[in-house]
Amino acid sequence: MIDQYKDYKIIKYSGNAISIEWKIQNFQIDFTRKLQVFINYLKKNNDNILYITPTFDSLLIRFKNPVNLNAAQEIIENKLQNFKAKSEDSINARTFQIPVCYEFGEDLETIANYSKLSIIDVIEIHSNQIYNIHFIGFLPGFLYLGEVDEAIQIPRKKTPRLEVKKGSVGIAENQSGIYSSNSPGGWQIVGKTPIEIFNANQNPPSKFLPGDQVKFHQISKSKYAQLLKDQPKLKPEND
Amino acid sequence: MIEVLNAGFYTTIQDYGRFHYTQYGIPLSGAMDRRLFRLSNLLLDNDEKIPAIEMIYVGAKLKFTEQTTVCITSPKAEVKLNGISVELNKQLRLNRNDEISVRQIESFAYLAVKNGFSSEKKLNSYSQYKTITKKSKLEKGDKLYYSPNVNSTLKNANIKFDNSYYNSSEIDVFVLPEYSCLNEFQKKRLNMDFTLSPKSNRMAFQLNEIIENQMNGISSKPVMPGTVQLTPEGSLIILMRDAQVTGGYPRIFQLTEDSINRLAQKKLNSKIKFKINKI
Lengths: 239, 279
What we know:
In chain A, 25% of the residues lie in helices and 29% in strands. By secondary structure, chain A is an alpha+beta fold.
């Protein structure tokens, strides 16, 4: 696809699916963005693709009809090669400001104790970072964000909560995440956003794509209540 | 309209599922046994893509307020029309205010209505799923509207139902990348019988047996319905239609489409055996 990402393998996943896995040590925003462009390119140039699922280092390509996998492998290989010519293509980084009320941070004290910092420090460190969207999964619309500052990294809770509220912002190891709906979950909760990040009544149901960036900013409880009611449209800063 | 008098254990509206949204973390959903879902529509000469009602174990009791023809498909189930037993897997003519109840299902049944019924469509599918559709399953009192069908001389779709499809305990699979990381003992164990755990649901079927395992998780990778994962505790999980679209457990096998349908219909606690196929 691009010279520095030529270490990949193509896997025959089933009678109607192929997976491409790149050898990448850590999340790389540049690669994630190029992968998004490659996905669009594949979809545009192959009528037999039903859907494509990405993660930060791999793709699953599901075909509409059973295919000759050897032929499909060759076609995909070809597309990877052809795509190389346009390797300077990259989607523009979009950055979204997401308001967070840290007063809902049920686990701030746990994190502060674990990292030997004050709660104010934890909030400061969490909200000062710019996060990359690695991928969307776990729940419809759940954002996986990296990378959490080492100073406030913490493992998931040993016993997951039976219900984490929609909008909750959490930390699990080096990732931060936003719960797109109420769900059982084990992430350590630092706060809550009033903004709906996922809405199945809209198409597409999420404004975010892997490779976009997120900045959190701290808001008060009264501002939280107001934004919850107003639901201002989420717009990227640099659109 | 169809009025839900009793919803049963877990009754949902399903079609082939919701494609094109996996990059937003949205499961594919859709009928657990696509084969019998399809057949329920084909036996009515319907478009095979229109939604049907899926039931498991203890089905629903439904009242049909207008004339129509329905079809209920399942490998095994007890269907009653106004309290009297009727046959499965064929057209069933209904008069105004007829009541249908489906029970003792092994394991999934589909009820299709001639020309379909209206229900909520979200992101190109009628399949019910929490956070996507308003309701995640049918509830007592729900109403589904359909156009009455007074013409009783329906073209008789001539499709033979073959139950033997479901008899085999063999589940056809392809091997996935992390299979090659297993040791000989683990591979040998995978050739033996497994038992379907009662913890199974539309998201995943679990197996009772534990395989000793030292393998850790992997970085999250895309998965599909039919992917078999091995957890660090040594449990095997077979992802089904409502599964997450990515997962961090080692991927061992991928079931064929036919095997997903067959597995869906297995009784809890029944034995299955993986049969490795070459791609």
